[in-house]
Design goal:
By secondary structure, this protein is mainly alpha-helical. 66% of the residues lie in helices and 4% in strands. Its cofactor is Zn(2+).
């Protein structure tokens, strides 16, 4: 069945609540573990049905935020997802209190129960209205970002459509495009600060009502982090500060020399090569057709999977007016179908994002056999291993997409992966500051962000642009608004993905086997256990960052950058 044939009908939440409560009662009243296992099937069916509808509404709303019908359906979901969350929490309470818990755990494994315990801790009817408001505020941020209509080059562009100009080989063009993007963001500074200020105080209030000391503790539990804490993350951030930041400073100096400028400004960062940034050699349709060869080359499984995604319309890739910014992958349980949403803009990022989201989608599809939703995909930092590693595992086939620009793409992708990490941990440390100091003013928050930029991104020069000099850059990072404390997950996964890159260079078949096995495990284990099972070093282990960065430095030393410079 093609995506265009998927049907949406607004769920009757009152009826769902009645059915859900009846199913949970049957589970509680069961007289054996076998009966409870049977009763779980009804609960799972109800969960899959509602979540499929919620995700389908989100997909169609983000594809066209101006569609009145799906705008109303998204508002309905914002209002009712917390109600649904309460239903699931009631089931989780029954699960962790089961007199047959030991027998159930032998069947399902311990991770299901650890996650259920956290779900119980992080929800209460007392915060239901607060959760609804949190969803509304997050959606308000998306609306503001999607409202961008920027006059540039005689066209009306959104932020994604402006990206090719930001990467232009002409310095004045990329400077003007960067300023145009930031003018839009600056004009909405008060809205961003107001939405975020309300979110911070709302989330802090929710945490207090649930018995937490602060929202940071609640956020870690919300994220299902059963096996590490803020102290572990700090150990990782310190490794980044000590080992990766100096390397990134060196890389930026090399970039400055390579593009031949005396002063390296923020609008120069997206431009890496005087011969032009690497670009895929065709449009979106061409990229999809070429990618069929890429994934067929990687493995039989990925070849068949990508053909399925393309043929069943399970990807919406091109940027267009009214489309929400960003990219994501989600899963529609009732159709056992992943769905990929991106905003292609003609840059090399089109390929990177497609490979990234296919990594997510492949894992979701590979794990579809798990009966409980908790195991269909793991906690988010482990999810990102699948996506980021896919970007590296497909390296041998990049010539099919980049042609003569292949070496340029591989170099920029690898160095870009490393350069991203300090920014990612800056986002994380910023959020720790925010929720440790919930009464900080918007000005104090922006000041803290600028301070962290100077620590983790010491090369960054905003050329006197007031909005950015005053710490406004973080407004564009949607995760800070919509998914608090998520962003560190990308950096943890990046270190794991770089280990897969290293291993693929040593033994590509073994690296693929370990990756495929990791995908098959879904969310049945916590992050550090999945890392161990895949034969990777935990990012929280001292020496992990150094071990992989050393390999990156060796690779960079072999690259003759003269090939990237015009004669």
């Amino acid at each position: 069945m093609k995506f265009s044939e998927f049907t949406y009908e607004r769920p009757d939440v009152a009826s769902l609540k009645t059915e859900f409560e009846e199913a949970v009662k049957v589970f509680k009243d069961a007289s054996s573990a076998d009966e409870q296992n049977e009763a779980m099937k009804k609960v799972v069916a109800l969960r899959n049905s509602f979540e499929s509808k919620a995700r389908l509404a989100k997909i169609r709303h983000t594809i066209n935020t101006e569609d009145v019908y799906y705008k109303e359906e998204q508002a309905f979901m914002d209002e009712n997802l917390p109600v649904y969350q309460g239903m699931v929490t009631a089931f989780h309470e029954a699960l962790v209190q089961s007199p047959y818990k030991d027998e159930l755990e032998r069947k399902w494994g311990g991770q299901l129960f650890r996650l259920a315990e956290l779900k119980v801790k992080t929800y209460s009817e007392d915060v239901l209205e607060d959760l609804k408001q949190e969803n509304k505020l997050s959606s308000e941020y998306v609306k503001v970002m999607a409202s961008a209509k920027i006059e540039f080059d005689g066209k009306e562009l959104n932020l994604a459509q402006l990206s090719p100009y930001v990467q232009s080989a002409d310095r004045e063009t990329r400077k003007a495009a960067s300023k145009a993007a930031n003018a839009f963001l600056s004009s909405n500074q008060e809205k961003f600060d107001s939405i975020y200020d309300e979110l911070v105080h709302l989330r802090t209030g929710i945490a207090k009502k649930l018995g937490y000391n602060n929202f940071t503790e609640l956020a870690y539990d919300r994220m299902g982090r059963t096996d590490y804490n803020a102290a572990d993350v700090k150990v990782f951030r310190e490794q980044v500060k000590e080992i990766i930041v100096p390397l990134c400073t060196t890389l930026k100096k090399r970039q400055q020399k390579r593009i031949g400028i005396n002063e390296f400004k923020f609008y120069d960062e997206p431009f890496s090569f005087t011969t032009g940034n690497p670009k895929p050699q065709g449009d979106a349709e061409w990229i999809v057709n070429q990618s069929k060869q890429v994934f067929s080359g990687l493995s039989q499984e990925t070849g068949a999977f990508f053909n399925y995604m393309a043929e069943d319309e399970l990807m919406d890739l091109e940027s267009k007016s009214g489309k929400a910014p960003g990219g994501y992958c989600t899963y529609l349980q009732d159709y056992t179908a992943p769905f990929i949403f991106t905003n292609f803009n003609g840059s090399d990022n089109d390929v990177r994002v497609l490979l990234h989201e296919i990594g997510h989608a492949f894992q979701m599809y590979t794990s579809r056999g798990y009966e409980v939703p908790e195991y269909q995909f793991p906690t988010l930092e482990a999810c990102e291993i699948h996506s980021m590693s896919m970007e590296f595992l497909t390296y041998p086939w990049m010539e099919k997409l980049f042609g003569k620009d292949t070496e340029k793409y591989l170099y920029s992708h690898l160095t870009g992966a490393v350069e991203f990490i300090p920014y990612g941990v800056a986002v994380d440390e910023f959020q720790h500051f925010v929720y440790d100091n919930p009464d900080a003013t918007p000005t104090e928050r922006r000041s803290k962000w600028r301070e962290l930029e100077k620590t983790y991104l010491p090369h960054r020069d905003y050329d006197g642009l007031e909005y950015l000099e005053n710490g406004g850059f973080w407004h564009r990072q949607g995760h800070i608004f919509r998914s608090p404390f998520y962003y560190i997950d990308y950096t943890l996964a990046q270190i794991c993905a770089l280990q897969f890159w290293k291993r693929a260079g040593e033994n590509s078949e073994r690296a693929w086997e370990d990756y495929f096995a990791l995908c098959q495990k879904g969310g049945s284990l916590p992050f550090t256990k999945l890392v161990e099972e895949a034969g990777l070093i935990s990012p929280f282990e001292k020496g992990c960052v150094a071990s992989v960065v050393g390999e990156v430095e060796k690779f960079i030393a072999t690259v003759d950058e003269e090939q990237f410079v015009k004669a």
